[in-house]
Amino acid sequence: MSDHIRTISGICFTPLEPKKEQLVPEDFAHALSLLCRANGHYPVFYSVGAHCINCYEEAAARNESLRVQLACLLHDVTEAYMSDLTRPVKKNLPDYVRYERRLSDVIYEKYLGSLLTENEESVVKEIDDTLLYHEFYHFTSIRLFEEEPRLTGIPNFEQGDFQEVEKKYKMIFQELTGSLGDQSSFR
Length: 187
Prior knowledge:
The chain has eight helices and two strands; from the N terminus they run E-E-H-H-H-H-H-H-H-H. It is mainly α. The chain has a single domain, classed as Hypothetical protein af1432. Helix 1 (about 25-35) packs antiparallel against helix 8 and helix 2 packs across helix 8.
């Protein structure tokens, strides 16, 4: 058995030894549109791709920099290649966390030109947690934190068609990378 996965575009990608030239938006936009949030424990299908779009839109509503907006769109791309683990499991698997961080660093270096600063990382995490809270409350009426995090935008929690989510993700990605002067393009 090899140590790579075959992506939708046909690339043989090794998640534990990522190469930035093998990261293509068509692969991660497609995969994220098909991965379900909360390990499938919401009453409807709500994708990781839709979550990333909502995070991007929240960053835009807060007037965060284009760089932070793109980081919010990209923050779960590792899941397209490594899947995801629930937080209670992930925190007990330091090797997984290390490999996920390595892949995340390669993604940010490729599409942002550098790693996130501590402040940028903090903003992205805060937006991610805000959306997590509001998703859980919307879908399950559970309040994950004692204090409700501030939500500036109006997220879309509707069950979306995966093809529409993929298309919207690609469109936002292309707009942001064009705005940042990145020459990234879809294969």
